[in-house]
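Researcher: I'm comparing several assemblies side by side, and this is the next one on my list. It has 467 residues spread over two chains. Same procedure as the others: predict the full complex and return the structure.
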Amino acid sequence: MIAKGGYIKDILVSSPGRTVDAHGWVKTRRDSKGVHFIQLNDGSCFADLQVVIEAGSIPEDTLKVVTTGACVRITGVLTESPAAGQAVELKAIAIHVFGVADSASYPLQKKGHTMEFLRDIAHLRTRSNTFGAVFRVRNALAFAIHTFFQDRGFQYVHTPIITASDCEGAGAMFGVTTLDMQNVPRIAEGPNAGKVDYTQDFFGKPAFLTVSGQLNAEIFALAFSNVYTFGPTFRAENSNTPRHLAEFWMIEPEMAFCDLAGDMELAEAFLKSVIGQVMDACPGDLEFFNKRIDNTILETLENVVNNDFEHVPYTEAVRILENSGQSWEFPVFWGADLQSEHERYLTEQTFKKPVIVTDYPREIKAFYMRANDDGKTVRAMDVLAPRIGEIIGGSQREERYDVLLDKIRESELSEEAYWWYLELRKFGSAPHAGFGLGFERLMLYLTGMKNIRDVIPFPRTPGTAEF
RNA sequence: UCCCCGUUAGCUCAAUGGCAGAGCGUUCGGCUGUUAACCGAAAUGUUGAUGGUUCGAGCCCAUCACGGGGAGCCA
């Protein structure tokens, strides 16, 4: 194990003169007449350690297998680098090769790989510049999220991954079963004869992978005041886009004693905080994204951190779109949901920064959102970001028992299935609000990466669960 | 799921229906410290799969598979 202080990121900021052991994987190698150069990376930072091997200092048969992809430990003396590009370099004394990588068949080259090719070698893409940067940022972002909430006294709650209530209603769900799919038990007689007999299944009823932890988080908010979830979420939708995954991570804060204004304040503070934290933690990685992936990304992030988000009620947003003079593929009128093209127009053309749209028509939003007094709209908010569209969706929740019961009946949902959700409104109900945020969507925003499959270690999408 | 585009060397891409090509990588050689090093040479192909049209198909047609972009669903 590499001890604290022994990572390449530590070695790179050490003062010259020491003898050190550097562990890692060879990224590239350059040979000259009397000297060899190796770029060594252990994943601890974007920069490589340049190792200098004087001719004759290392046995020929060792040197021969120190090629791109090989895993090595190099003992050497840290010296001031005479050339530009790095402050210090390692003059090799001894090299131990843990694992060779045959040059003729090692798939990673020094240059020009497409994201699609790298995705096909997800077991090796982690060693590339791009994916090293992506996954360091992912780690820093996850940590920043916990830091943000913990600093504010939010409790982290682990909501279930398996749910036996199919009442979440946020999209198609994956079934979870131990029944023998080749020989499914069926109900023998009665009105349901011939249907699957779930009483014989593991949970005694149909079970699914969660599509949201929100309803469970509400339970905790009505006891611990401020809570958040951060865990995997599953959608069985046949979505084939650069913005969808079948398995993704979601963050869902839920706050008691909170209205829509408080919800929006938290959402904005959240985005600014986590983006700022990642900018502090991963400057080298973000510079790389700015240089090679999207040269507007640093400017965009600075902008988000330093400027207030735009707020616009749905009704006003519709008016802006109607008066834009644009021709839309999907018509704009009060009551219609905003389409991708509309969201992009608002964020990229009208405001050129994140926009929070509020107070949507009740018909196009979920039953649990709190009704406004106008009877037409609900206290919902979507945070829209340039390039990626909706990044946060949230609302104040309906805390009034009678109103919620009406909404459930109106939506033709099962009262019985929501018994506990209703009962929360009967015993010590409180105004409360929250939002949901796709972790990988935020990763896209932070890195400038174009495809969501390239910001999660091992993407699961329709037809693909490799690695 | 719908629309459009694509699939040729390890990678990125060329190739009027008529001999399968380049750059990068790899290998070998050269080069006084390189930074996606440089210079020279060589090797590398079941043109995604299955049918069809044709004297002849990488190229035209059909079906399928996979990938990309857009849309829907949504986070």
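Model: For your comparison table: The mean pLDDT of chain A is 93.
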